[in-house]
Write a structure and sequence with these properties.
The complex is a heterodimer of chains A (111) and B (116). Chain A has 111 residues and is mostly beta strands. Helices cover 0% and strands 55% of the residues of chain A. Chain A contains no helices and twelve strands. In chain A, strands 2, 5, 6, 10, 11 and 12 form a six-stranded mixed sheet that branches. Chain A has a four-stranded antiparallel sheet with strand order 3-9-8-7, with no helix packed on it. In chain A, a hairpin with a 5-residue loop joins strand 7 and strand 8. The N and C termini of chain A lie far apart (41 Å). The model of chain A has no long low-confidence stretch (mean pLDDT 92). Chain B has 116 residues and is mainly β. Chain B contains no helices and eleven strands. In chain B, a hairpin with a 3-residue loop joins strand 9 and strand 10. The mean pLDDT of chain B is 91. The chains are: A mainly beta (111), B mainly beta (116). At the A-B interface, strand 5, strand 6, strand 10 and strand 11 of A face strand 9 and strand 10 of B.
Chain lengths: 111, 116
């Protein structure tokens, strides 16, 4: 079945530490891939997206993501986390005009 | 560019009443809009897809008579929760598909509905 999986429900990192949020997908072909961030009570803000080409994608707020076809993964990374990055992060795939979201990963940033 | 305005941000209503949520595309025309529901600490679940000038397509398990969707113009889609019950309390988010720099979906800021 087609699915988007974010294995980590909750991650806690110290401010200044590096971050990696995992996302795996299960689709017959490579879908369009997205990462969104959601602050409490807010809508979703697009961090970055991948359609084709360079597998390392740069986004806003210092985030990047790498598409790995062999692993069906699109992990989100940031070299140094800021306290303001604490939020919920969603991986999403767009396939045949149908966008589906992963369960989300809640990021907590320790001082 | 590609801003979607969703209103109201929050609403409290009594059981049995109806509530309308509006989603407007401010600087582009949205032929297709999507309505999602999000339970606390959970992901977004697609409820329905609305296309301007035609009937909405509902996901399996979504009651079309309870969640009325209207997309009468290229800039406005509305979701009306009819005869609301406490179990309808949730966070509702709309989005529109935009074709700027490739495919993208832009999201409204969401509506917190509380039914008392």
């Amino acid at each position: 079945a087609q699915s988007v999986t974010q294995p980590d429900i909750h991650i806690t990192v110290s401010e200044g530490a590096s971050l990696e949020l995992r996302c795996n997908y299960s689709y017959g072909a490579t879908p369009y891939l997205f990462w969104y961030v959601q602050s409490p009570g807010q809508g979703l803000q697009l961090l970055l997206k991948y359609f084709s080409g360079d597998t390392l994608v740069q986004g806003i707020k210092g985030f990047e993501a790498e598409f790995k076809r062999s692993q069906s993964s699109f992990n989100l990374r940031k070299p140094s986390v800021h306290w303001s990055d604490a939020a919920e992060y969603f991986c999403a795939v767009l396939y045949n005009n149908d966008m589906r979201f992963g369960a989300g990963t809640r990021l907590t940033v320790k001082p | 560019g590609a801003v979607v305005s969703q209103h109201p941000s929050w609403v409290i209503c009594k059981s049995g009443t109806s509530v309308k949520i509006e989603c407007r595309s401010l600087d582009f025309q949205a032929t297709t809009m999507f309505w999602y529901r999000q339970f606390p600490k959970q992901s977004l679940m697609l409820m329905a897809t609305s296309n301007e000038g035609s009937k909405a397509t509902y996901e399996q398990g979504v009651e079309k008579d309870k969640f009325l969707i209207n997309h009468a113009s290229l800039t406005l889609s509305t979701l009306t929760v009819t005869s609301a019950h406490p179990e309808d309390s949730s966070f509702y988010i709309c989005s529109a598909r935009v074709e700027i720099d490739g495919y993208g979906y832009t999201f409204g800021s969401g509506t917190r509905l509380t039914v008392v």
